Amino acid sequence: MFNFWENYKKRLKEEQAAKWMHFKAGLPENVQNFLDKTETAYKNYKETTLCEIIETVVFVLVMVIIIRFFVGEIRWIPSGSMNPTLIENDRIIVERFSRFFTGPKRGDIMVFYPPSTQLSRKPLPLLERLTGINCQDVAYIKRVIGLPGDKVEIKFEKDNKAYVYINDKKYEEDYIKSVYEYTSCQKGEVTDEMYANTSIAKCGPFILPNDSYFMMGDNRGNSQDSRYWGTLKRDRFVGRAVVIFWPLNRIKILHQLEDKISN
Description:
- It is a single chain.
- The protein is an alpha+beta fold and 263 residues long.
- The chain has 2 domains: 2-66, no CATH class; 74-253, Umud Fragment, subunit A, CATH 2.10.109.10.
- It has 6 helices and 14 strands.
- It has helices at residues 2-25, 29-46, 49-70, 123-131, 192-196, 226-229; strands at 72-76, 91-95, 109-112, 140-146, 151-156, 162-166, 169-170, 186-187, 202-204, 206-207, 212-216, 232-233, 237-246, 252-253.
- Strands 1, 2, 3, 4, 11, 12, 13 and 14 form an 8-stranded antiparallel β-sheet that branches. A 4-stranded antiparallel β-sheet has the order 7-6-5-10, with no helix packed on it.
- A hairpin with a 5-residue loop joins strand 5 (151-156) and strand 6.
C-alpha cells in the first residue's frame, strides 16, 4: 500500500510538471526566461537554512493561532478580584471551543475584554492578540452573574450583608469571599449617565439587553466589574476558565455551577 501511494504521488508530480512545461512553451521567450530564473532562484532558496527557519517559524505561528483561537490558552491571575476562587499568580487553562456552540452560563468564570479595551483590527495588533505574543490588550476574569433578559440588583440588608437578586429572587452564592464586603453602591435603575461614570458602583436594578451579560468578581469588595462599567457583549468573551494547574498545591478543576436562585 505504501509503495502504491508513493508511486501515485510520483506520477502525479510528473504529470503536473509536464503540464507546466507545456504551458510555458506557449509563452513568449522573455517570459519563459524570467520563469526559468525564478524557478532556479526558488529551488536554491528551498535548499538554504533560511528557508527552513522561515517555514518553521510560520508553522509554529499558525499552530499557536489555531490552538489559541479554537482550543484554549494559558492565563495567569494578576489581581485578587476573584479571591478566594482564584488568587494572585494562579495559572489557569482557558478553553475556547465551547463558545462556538453555546453562550456563557450563569456561574461560569470567563476571561473577556472589558468595554474599556479598544480592540484594534489592524494586522499587527490582531496577530499579537491571536498569538498572545506582546499582546497589550487588557483582559479581565470575572464570573457570569446575569444572562440576557435578566433583571439584576444588589440589595443590602440591615446587618450590612449584601446579596445579588436575579429577577427579584436571591441568588445563592457559596463561593464569594464575604457577604459583608460588598462595595457600597448607588441604588436605582441604571441610566446612561450612571453608566458613563465608571468610578462609582451601582446597585441597580440592571435590565440586561439581548446579547448582554452581567459580570462580577468573587471578591465583591475589590472588583472592578459590571457594577462599575455595565454589561458585556458576548463577542467580548475570550473563553472559560476550567483548570488551575499552578502552583501544584492549588491544582483543581473549576466546575460549572448549578443555577441556584431562591424562590
